[in-house]
Each structure stands twice: as C-alpha cells, then as structure tokens.
Amino acid sequence: MMRPLLALLFVFVLGVPGAFAAEDVDYDRLVRWMEGTFSSAEHARRDTAFMDMTLHVKRIWPDRRDGAWFYVELSRVDAEDKPERQMVYQVMRVEEGMIESIVWSVRNPDAVRGAWADSTIFEERSQKDLVRRRGCELYFQTDADRYVGGTHGMACASDIKGVSYMTSTITVMADGIMIWERGYSPTNEQLFGSKKQGYVFLRK
C-alpha cells in the first residue's frame, strides 16, 4: 500500500500545471534563448521592406512559480525612446510537448518604458498592472534546433483600426528570434504585416 504522504505528493505533482519533471530541458532552453537584446539591422540591410529595429526581452519577477515572465519592448533604432510595442510574456509548460506563452498588455506603458535596462521598475509592479490579451496566447513546440510558436485561428482581436484579428508566428533560436505578425479583415483579407516573411532579429 502506498504511504499516505507519498500518495499525496504523487497527486499534487500530477495536478499542478507545469510540474512535469524536476528538470525540463526543452522549457529551460526556451526560457534561456528568449532573453536578450536582438537587432533586425542585418535583415533591414538585405531587404529594405523591413525596418532596422531593436527587440529587448528581459526576465522579470524571477521568484514567481507560475512560469517565466518577460518584459518585451520593440522599437525602431531611430526612435528608441518611443517603443512600437510593449508587452509581457508569461511562459509555462502546459503539457508534454507544448509550451504556452500568455500575452499581457501593460496598463501604463510609459511607466515601464526602458524596464529592460532597469530591473527595479517591475519590482514595484504586479500582475494587477497588466491586462491579459485572451486569444493571443502563443503555443510553442520544439522543432530540431528551434522552437516554433504561434496563435490559434482568429481568436486574437486587434486594436489596429480596421483590422479584425491578428496572427503571430514566433521562431526562437539560439542566435535570434523571428517574428511574423499579420492582421486581417473580417473577410480574412490581409491588411497588416509582411506577406512574405517575418522580421529576423539576431542576438546582439
């Protein structure tokens, strides 16, 4: 007969999302590869349809047990004080073979601008300062030497005028990140984003 304490521990581990193993190599590697500063300068040089942009991804709230949290800031190199995008990713293992990134918007973006360079900014803030973007979750799977993730279907509503919904595909590699965002009309006509490929950001 299984000892009561051991049985309780067994049930607890199986019942907690993300608690699949003491060591999750794929998850830990994704978390490690996501963090850093990345540049699309090389991509912009090769293809003038793309802008020279800088992507900062900084780990925040490292003591939280509900996944790895990242502050994400995207800006043009000629306007780094005016970010194009600010958001928070909550990355966690949801099942074997699948890693989810919940996407959060920031209630007061100006208050956290530059937080990638100043870790104290988010020490003074909590999840209450964020708004979850339901339907915009990204689901990652391992593909050889990279992680490929994306949104599902038409669930990610857009805040861009005239655009009904967004899709996002993100590929994370050891040396960079590829981000391909597209926006569509209610009749599935593409209105936003590149039609040929996403931005390629190389690690700096």
Automatic annotation (TrEMBL):
MF term (GO), any: lyase activity
Signal peptide span: 1-21
InterPro entries (alphabetical): CpcT/CpeT, CpcT/CpeT_sf
Keyword Protein biosynthesis: no
UniProt entry keywords in alphabetical sequence: Lyase, Signal
Cited Pfam families: CpeT (PF06206)
CDD domains attached to this UniProt entry: CpcT
PANTHER family: CHROMOPHORE LYASE CRL, CHLOROPLASTIC (PTHR35137)
Protein family membership: Belongs to the CpcT/CpeT biliprotein lyase family.
Record-given protein name: Chromophore lyase CpcT/CpeT
Organism: Candidatus Kapaibacterium thiocyanatum
Highest classification ranks of the organism: Bacteria, Pseudomonadati, Candidatus Kapaibacteriota, Candidatus Kapaibacteriia, Candidatus Kapaibacteriales
